[in-house]
Amino acid sequence: MTVQTWTFLLIAVTFAIYIGIAILSRVKTTKDFYIAGGHVPPLLNGMATAADWMSAASFISMAGLISFMGYDGGVYLMGWTGGYVLLALLLAPYLRKFGKFTVPDFIGDRYYSNVARTVAVVAAIVVSFTYIAGQMRGVGVVFARFLEVPVDTGVFIGMVIVFFYAVLGGMKGITYTQVAQYCILIFAYMVPAIFIALSMTDNILPQLGFIGKETESGMYLLEKLDQLHHDLGFHEYTTGSKSMIDVFAITFALMVGTAGLPHVIVRFFTVPKVADARKSAGWALLFIAVLYTTAPAVAVFARTNLINTVSEKKYEEMPEWFKSWEETGLIVFNDKNDDGKIQYLGNAEKNELTIDRDIMVLANPEIAQLPFWVIALVAAGGLAAALSTAAGLLLVISSSLSHDLVKKQIKPHLSEKHELILARIGALIAIVVAGYFGVNPPGFVAATVALAFGLAAASFFPAIILGIFDKRMNKEGAIAGMVVGMVLMFGYMAVFKLGWFVDEIPPASEWWFGISPEGFGTVAMLVNLTVSLLISRFYPAPPEHVQQMVEDIRVPRKSKET
Questions:
Q1: What SS3 state is found at 220?
Q2: Phi, psi (5° rounding) for residue 355?
Q3: CA 195, CA 176: separation in Å to the nearest integer?
Q4: Are the C-beta atoms of 462 and 456 separated by less than 8 Å?
Q5: Domain residue ranges in the chain
Q6: What DSSP assignment string belongs to 406-457?
Q7: How many CB atoms are closer than 10 A to CB 416?
Q8: Which of 58, 364, 396, 514 is close enough to 302 for a disulfide, judged by CB 3.0 to 4.6 Å?
Q9: Are the beta carbons of 405 and 121 closer than 8 angstroms?
Q10: Do 423 and 403 contact (CB within 8 A), yes or no?
């Protein structure tokens, strides 16, 4: 069978599984729709959390970023992994003990203010739409190559599928679909990595292949890649080019952004007890580590194989995969000297090959000449990663509109039946807007997602952390901090990433403090934190019942009783 036939088969089977789970898990109550009834076992919730968190950026784009950026790409590994640890240890148990449906719910009640709730709703929607753009873009990239349709058409197909199981099953359907998606995506990620590790380094574990020797040359793989980079005029793979302040800023923004992501936080509301939230966080970290410790190896394998395949080769001798990706527009060859050879060089003026970073994981099995079913499996895994996160984000947007905006503020007496209908309508609106951003994303997948983390860091993290650990924090401080942080981050992103309000996107030399848009969430978060603390001290302390609520969240019941 051809690659396309295998892809059709595997994608059809996986989509049938997702839709089947949605039908079996269809919900009739808002509690089931928002938090799966609060009855998900810790092990399954850990798998669902891992799938929710490991988006298209993790599966498709992160190894691609590392393969092009080398050492500099490590900030994504450090930031996303460290951020999950921060979330699991510092926030998840306390938020689960609070026991609400959503992050805006926590902020609205903790800061005894519908204004604070509305600001949180706006922040949740902005973060989620920025994040979901990357997921839908990832779906489009997969469909464009393996089903040979335009990227835009791929986005529309993904919209239909994710809307179906998200709207029908709500969080209950999404949770059990994400369990299946985790199994699919991790299998799809590991199988080609193991195949390539064996062929290149004689190691069955990709992690050992990463630090091992290449079979053909006898050189350490990283040493060989450094030499290839040097010969072609790229900066060495194992050395960085980013300034230390930018490395720190991006890593920290990703960390605190992870801890403020509403679609990940809500996963800890789906388990029965606070102890189960801790257990599911531990399981999720273990499941996440499987992919995250493999990604650097995949990046090195893909980069080495790519350079060896294309550099100084004649265009007409290129394998079929090269020309298939060319048709999608994600690989572009421009023969500047008309010699028919591909000059893949670090010198921008002489370089003749442009490669979209998002294709590296998807093209890796083809470059390594693996069996067709493995190539198709990676496509199914990429879709699973993108759709799992997209579904979680859709639910955040839907619940923010129906529960936090309408039910809590506009129509308090709205019946459960009508709230459920409204939630589904909200999901429909969200998927249409998400589709637009998928077709017109503000960057490649991982960069778009990184901006979402920056927005989460700038808006949610200080409000949540101060809401748990500072009884004196009041509504005035929280509202001011969230607004200032979000406006600052969005403004910086609009100018330096999207080119709004200026004639052209300013160069890196004009970045504030030398910090890139992906790392500016750290600055915006610190400004938010400072504004929140200062403003709060000029206004009265929160009511006594709110301070007592904070005390109850923070102090374990047993220690309080004794």
A1: strand
A2: -125, 125
A3: 29
A4: no
A5: 3-305+370-453
A6: IIIII-TT--HHHHHHHHHHHHHHHHHHHHHHHHS-SSSHHHHHHHHHHHHH
A7: 13
A8: 364
A9: yes
A10: yes
The residue written with tokens 């942080």 in the block is 485
Q: Please give the Cα distance from 62 to 66 (Å, whole number).
A: 6
Please tell me the distance from the alpha carbon of residue 36 to that of residue 362, in angstroms, as a whole number: 33
Contact, 307 vs 228, CB < 8 A?
A: yes
Q: Each residue of 84-124: pLDDT tens digit? A: 778 777 777 787 777 666 788 888 889 998 899 898 888 88
From the list 260, 239, 236, 250, the residue with the least C-alpha distance to 78 is 250
**What dotted CATH number matches 3-305+370-453?**
1.20.1730.10
- pTM (2 decimals)? 0.80
Q: Rounded CA gap, 427 and 372, in Å?
A: 36
Token reading at 404: 């936090």
The DSSP code sequence of 93-142 is HHHHHHT-SSHHHHHHHHTT-HHHHHHHHHHHHHHHHHHHHHHHHHHHHH
Q: Name the token pair of 183.
A: 């199994």
Cα angle 122, 125, 126 (rounded to 5 degrees) comes to 85
**Mapping DSSP to helix (H, G, I), strand (E, B) and coil, where does residue 129 land?**
helix
The whole-angstrom separation of Cα 265 and Cα 123 is 14
109-166 per-position pLDDT tens digit = 899 988 998 988 888 887 887 777 767 777 777 777 677 777 788 888 878 877 776 6
For residues 119 and 116, what is the distance between their CA atoms, to the nearest angstrom?
Answer: 5
Q: Which of 534, 549, 528, 553 is nearest to 123 (CA)?
A: 528
